[in-house]
């Protein structure tokens, strides 16, 4: 099959926060209830999906990624509920996730400043280590303070991307494989620095073609929020991300430094 005929790829889902009850969530509705998430994991099991991480994908090899029903669950920002709600469910169903940490602060300073959001605590190192040791969670970079990267000077970019990576790798005792662009804001300059930092993959939100090998530093993801079952089934279709690209194209961001 020639490259341009490929219209399906591994589904890559994007989550943020997990709550027991809707009332615990913030006003920016970036959360899913435990009950709904548990149903989603059961559906993925039932449909025969195997959850993998980016390190797994590297081992499997990009060329072999469609030989089984793989799916990647990604979780942005590293909220405390990832330990209290997500992690027990991953253990229960023996499923994996990739969590992108904001490592220079210990709460959601960026959404408090932009949207007067409620205060949410982020994961601490002890929780991160325990999740890492389980083998079910892989951690990736998501900067020190969650800025919109195209607005930064080169010096600030190096700090937010490279310094963050070095510090996290020292804490975790292993190399980070993937990076998530805060807000999905990506420009060629930002991408270049992420590449130079030594990441193997980088995930975006509303950019990328939905086909991983087209650009492994602009891997499109599907946001899973409070949607219903039908919506979820639609969004885990291997054709969904490419369909979104065909329909909406790429969101453009410009460097403002
Ligand atoms: Zn984020």
From TrEMBL:
This is Polysaccharide deacetylase family protein. InterPro entries: Glyco_hydro/deAcase_b/a-brl, NODB_dom, Polysacch_Deacetylase. It holds the Pfam family Polysacc_deac_1. One of its GO terms (molecular function) is hydrolase activity. Its EC number is 3.-.-.-. Keywords: Hydrolase, Signal. It comes from Candidatus Cetobacterium colombiensis. Its main location: secreted. SUPFAM superfamilies: Glycoside hydrolase/deacetylase.
